[in-house]
Structure formats: structure tokens, C-alpha cells
């Protein structure tokens, strides 16, 4: 795997050991190589003409020549990678050959945030999916696309003995009161094609004070905008040159698989 | 001239001529050019059959490679000299399905040119299923290489050839730095993103870094016990002025807690004033990252500065605590209008906003 995929890194990583003459130099080098934000990830992926890493390499490694392929390869996590080298090689080649770029304004990418909350006073985790949105003026913002937590799930039980009988209207739906009290079977009283709206449920619980947001603990970016591929980008906090926001996994995905991915992994129906 | 064996289209390649499809055009090092069919590119010579309607049986000409600058094939491919290519077909890797705008710096904008005759040239740029119309002034480009094989040069073929050999594909976010502007851009709007090379962005960066440096200076003043109480309060007010509003939040991490604390800026500064150290030293390191600016729905522009902060806490003249943390400082470029001599000008200023802490290194 390394033979195929670390041509550019090998040279620089070995130089890293030699370069650590002072702590500040080491920290500065880590800082320069770290992919500090997802914007910087995009800059390197797209081989933007002016970037911090290019300035740093020019100044500190003036003899080093590198291509867009090399830059994209530095965006992979090399410690216990969850991606296959051959697949990664094919991905990078495809991206470079077909001049694929990643943009903030792309539709098919999401931030999956694992968040700490309290639910009725108890510590819990909620997954919140964020998606960028651009309005007609060109202004952009992050929006909450979906939310998931086990405690946000409505009872799924459907009992065919639990229903409002077909003559309920004759009593001005007196049976509704009983249905509303039968909370564990509430789904049985709903229309057949009912689909749970987890986001609405989350907002409702937030509004009535049952959910109190504490903080975002962990983020993974799920990028589905490149034809035939899906990648996950996560943050690796460590010293060295392979750190920051890096590709943690890479998968070949058909359009159908992407739709399924959005449902299963990102809770987007 | 018409009786010459070659059709000399122009003595100089600086032209706005569109060449009919299917004819190959050979450019020589003296910038003259000839239309015909390139039959073979050999080790030292190129076999070329000129297209001359006045000649019934045109002869194949052998051109020295060293005399050639560029071949523009009728199928849209190109061959820039010098190179090591040999073959009787156009180099397949140099065929392109998009139109190409070659910029002065050798960047290629792969796009669909919608009006090549106008100045600025109009084109549509597509990325990830979104197509955006752009304009680029003619003096920002060297050539247009159409996907159908036609081409238009705005400069000498020799320069076009050099830049094609060193070409680099442009990205959407780099278009503005290459001189392209959104075709539907509202007047005085700075666009969706202000690019790193843009002059406004350079000013923004300078201002943002200056305000970050000012913040560092105030933090030192506030935290040091030698600072007079009144002066510390004044420094707090001055520091808060650097921020967009009092709602700006600072994240604080502690090695003993998994949960990060968030404090409003004034609250944070007041706590800093009460630190138990006799002296603190807070400094930013020289290296920093500044993101591009992105327009928000409110018309302001948002970016981030990442920098490393070194903190040292002293007691009795000795460092008793130190750490290096990376701070991500949100920066807001706020636009506003001002009447100057009867003209409404769009002006801007830079403010600091939320400050996140990323990782702790001690």
C-alpha cells in the first residue's frame, strides 16, 4: 500500500525527524502541515494557487516538486487507515484526470456532528446533520438537515387491535382521548404511510425544554458530490505532518447506494 | 502571396481568427502559421500536407521540429513544442471536451464559452452540476481553445505554446484571482467568495491580523498583575471593541474536563484579569492560516484565522504553567454604505467574532 501511495510523504516525513531542532520549529511545521479547517482541505484538494502549505513548502523545501496528485495524497489518514490503497489510487487518478473539485457550495456534502445534550436531565448524545445552503443572493449558511438519537424515536409498535373504529365519528371521536393516552401504541392510530420526522421531534423536544444542548463533541464530513465515490473526512489531532482534517474512509458508491447512504448513515429521508 | 505553396494566414499569430474545423494549424517559430493536415510527427521532422485550393496536387512538406512552436489540431488537440511526442495522430491526452480559456499565468479555465467576440469574453463554468455565467476581460487571456477544434489567440503563438506546456487547471474558487467575475454580480457586490489573491482580501487579511495582534496585546495587559486596575478595565473595553458584539464567545478547554467551557468575551476577559499568576506572557506564533471569505445571508463576509497561541503563567519569576493552543478566530467583514461627495460608497471593516480552541499541546 505505502509503495503506491506515499511517494510524496516519504521524503517529507523523513525530513520531519531531522527538522525537529527546536520545539517551536516542530510546532510550526505541524501547524503548517495540519489541515486546520475543512476550507483548507478544499484548498489542498483543489490545488488552489495560493495556500499556506504551498508558501511553507516553497520557503522550507524549495527543491520539493509536487503535483495536485501529491497534495491530494497528503489528505489521507495514514495511521490505521480504513481505506484501501488501490482504491485510493484510483480515486485520486479519477479526480485529477476529470478535474473534479470540491466546493463549499456543493449540494451533496454534509457535516455529521455528534453532540452532547441532556434529555430530561440525563446526559445523552444526539447526531445532528448539517448541510450548507446558498440563497439567491449568493449568501451561504449552514443549516440543520436532520437529527437522530435513540430517545427521539417514536414507539414503532403497530397493533391491529389498537385503532379508532369506523364509527368513531358518530361519537364526535370520543375514542381520540383514549388513543392519546395509549402512548406506547400511538403509531397504531396514525395513517399507514406515516413517516417519522426526527428533526421535527428533536426541535419539539428542544422547544419544550426536554433537550438541552451542551456541545459538539465530534464531527465527520461526508462528501458524496464526486461521481461514483463517497468519502469521510475526520479530524486527527496529533503531532507530525499527517494531521488535521483527513480522509478517514473512501467508498465506491452508485447513485442508488448514495441515496441509501443518506438514509442509513445521515438519517436523511 | 496566394500562389505560394502554403496558405499564409497571417504573419503574426496575434489575431482574432477562428479557424475552420478539421484543418490542422502549424505555427512556426517566427509566428507565421499554415493550415493543412499534419500526417506524422517524427523524431526530427513533421510531415505536413498544406491545404491550398490553388494547388491540384499539393506535396507533403517536411518541417523541422526545431522550427515549430505549436500545432493546433482540427479535433481540438494541441502539441506545444518542444516536446517528445511522436505519432501520426493528435496526442489523445491533449484533446479536451470543454472549451479552454488560457490565462496569462498559464491557468486553463475549462468551461463553455458563450460569447468569444465580446470583451469581456462570456463563459459558463460548471462544477458539480452547477453552472455559473462569468465574464473575463480579453487582456486577461492568451487564447481560447474551443472544444470543436477552433481557436482564437490573443497573443503570440510562442507564448501560448509556453503556457500550454506549463498549464494548470483553474478551479472555481480561483476564477476571481484570474480576472473572471460573475456575470450576474450585483453592482458593488464583492461576490460569493473573496479569493486569496484579491486585493480586497489582502487588505482584509492585514486588518484581521492587526486586530488579532491587538487582542494579544490587550490580553497581556489584562492578565498581568503589574497592570493598574483602571488600565486593565480600559484594556477590557478596548479588547471588546475589536469584536463584532458582546455576544462573541470564547471557548476554553481544560485538561481536567471533557466539556469545553464557553464564555462571552467580556466575561472571559474579566476572568483573565483575576488569574492567579504574578505575570503572564501570551503571544501568537508567526505562522497563521487565513481562509477565503464567504458571503453570508446578511451580506457580511465570514472567514477564519487559525493561529497558535503560546501561554506562559509565572509565579515568583518562574513559569509554572505553559501551553500552546491553536485558536480558530472567526472574522467578520462587515459592509456598510457611506455617502462621500454625493456618491454612495460600499465600505467595510473587520471584526473578530467567536474564538474556538482546537487542541491542547503543552
Walkthrough of the structure:
The complex is a heterodimer of chains A (269) and B (362). Chain A folds into three domains: 145 residues, no CATH class; 68 residues, no CATH class; 42 residues, no CATH class. In chain A, strands 3-2-1-4-5-6 form a six-stranded antiparallel beta sheet. In chain A, a hairpin with a 5-residue loop joins strand 2 and strand 3. Chain A contains ten helices and six strands, in the order H-H-H-H-H-H-H-E-E-E-H-H-E-E-E-H. About 6% of the residues of chain A have low confidence. Helices cover 34% and strands 23% of the residues of chain A. Chain A has 269 residues and is an alpha+beta fold. Chain B has four helices and 22 strands. The N terminus of chain B is likely disordered. In chain B, the strands form four sheets. In chain B, strands 7, 8, 9, 10, 11, 12, 13 and 14 form an eight-stranded mixed beta sheet that branches. A six-stranded antiparallel beta sheet of chain B has the order 4-3-2-1-5-6, covered by helices on one side. Chain B has two domains: 159 residues, no CATH class; 169 residues, Nuclear Transport Factor 2, Chain: A (Roll), CATH 3.10.450. The relative contact order of chain B is 0.09. The N and C termini of chain B lie far apart (80 Å). The radius of gyration of chain B is 30 Å and the shape is elongated. Chain B is an alpha+beta fold. The chains are: A alpha+beta (269), B alpha+beta (362). Chains A and B meet through helix 3 and helix 4 of A and strand 13, strand 17, strand 18, strand 20 and strand 21 of B.
